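Notes from the 1:1 (GR / supervisor)

We went over the backlog. Supervisor wanted to see one worked example end to end before approving the batch request, so GR pasted a single chain during the call. The sequence is below; no edits were made to it. Supervisor asked that the structure be written out right there so they could see what the output format looks like.
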Amino acid sequence: MKKIIYLSIFLVISIFYLMACSSQQEPTVTAVPTFPSPTLVNTVTPTFSCTKLDVVPTSTPNSASLFPPVSSADFSIGPTDAPVTLIQYCDFQSQGCQAMSVIVAQLMRNHTNLRFVFRPLPLTSIATFDKSEQAVLAAVAAGEQNKFWEMYDLLFVRYNEWINLNPSQFEAWLLKQAPTAGIDVNQLTEQMKAEETKTKLTSSIEAAKQLNIAAVPLILINGEQFFLLDYQNISDTIGVIALGQKQFTECPPFSIDVNKTYVATLETEKGNIVIELFADKAPLAVNSFVFLAQQGWYDGVTFHRVLPGFVAQAGDPSGTGRGNPGYFFKTEISDLLFSKPGMVGMANSGPDTNGSQFFITYAPANHLNGSYTIFGAVISGLDVAEKLTPRDPAQFGTLAPGDKIIKITIEEK
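Structure output shown during the call:
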C-alpha cells in the first residue's frame, strides 16, 4: 500500500515537472553575423619621372688656367666667393678698354654674383700709347690709399678729356682732377715716385711679356679666355655659369594631388597674373611648376622673350633662354589646345625636354598643338601679361631690360 502511495506521489511530481518544462520556450539561436574580407586595391602612387642632366661642370673661378689665379695683390670688386670671376687685362689709354669699361659697369649692375678683377697692362710697345705707363702708375699709386677704383673711374669715364694731351699735360690734369675723385693729391704724388709703385708697374709689364699678351682688352671668364666681347654674350655666359648654383641635383618628388585644383599667382613688376593649373591634364608639368615656385626658383626671373601677338616666355633664372632646373621631364599632350589667348605651356627644345621655362599665349597658336604641354590658363591678369616689355633674344645687340617675376604663390583648393 505504501509503495502505491509513494508511486502516486512520484508520478504527480513528474507530471508537474514536465508541464513546467513544456511551458518554457526554447531559446532562439541567433546566427553570428559574418563580414566579407576587405578587398585591397593596388593603388599606384604617382611618381615624377624625369631625366637628370649629367653635364660637364662649367669652369669655376678656381679652375686651372694658363693665367695667374686671383690673389690679394689684384684689384677686384664684387663677392670673393662669386661663382663667376671676370678678369680683364687692359691699358687705360686703349680706346677698346675704355669701351669695355662701359660694358663692365653694366655687367656689375646687372649681376650681383660677379667678381671683377682688373689687371693694368701698359702696352709700352705701341708708340702712340705715350701716357700708358703714367696712367697705370697713377692707378697703382691711388691703390696705396685704397682709391684704385676711384682712379679707374676717373681715367675711363673722363677718357676724352685727357686722351689727346701730351704726357706733361696729362700729369697736370691728373693732379688737378684727383681731388674730385676723393684722392689725396700729396699722397698720390708721393706714391707715384715711390720705388715700390714703380716695381709693381715693372712686374705687370714683365707678366704681360710672359703671357704673350699682344692686344687688349683681354677677357677671362673663370680663367678661360673669352672672345665675344659684347655685353649680351658676356652677360649670357655669366648667367648660365651662375645658374649652376641653383640647379637641382635630383628630380623633384611627386607631391601634388591630381584631384585638387592649383592656382598660381605671378606677382610681376607690371602687376599680377593668375593662372589655373591643370593637374589632371598635365600632372608632371604642374608638379614641377609647383615645386620650383615653392623653392623660389622663379623669384626675380625675367620675362626674357616677349613677342607681341604670340607669347611671353619666362622661367630661366639666367635670363638667356638657355637655362634649365637641372632635369628634363616628358611632354604631356592632352585634349587641350592653344586655341585662345592666355593658354600656358611648357617651353622645350624638342620632345620630352620640359624644364622650368613656360610661356603665355597672346593669341591662338594652333601650330603649337601636339608639340608643347599645356598645363594651365590665365584666369586673371591677361591684360597685365600684354603690358610686358617686348623683348626678342633672337635680335642682335643689347636687349632692353625685361620685366621680372617678383614671386609666385601657389594656392591649393
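Supervisor's comment: Residues 1-45 have pLDDT under 50 and may be disordered.
Batch request approved.
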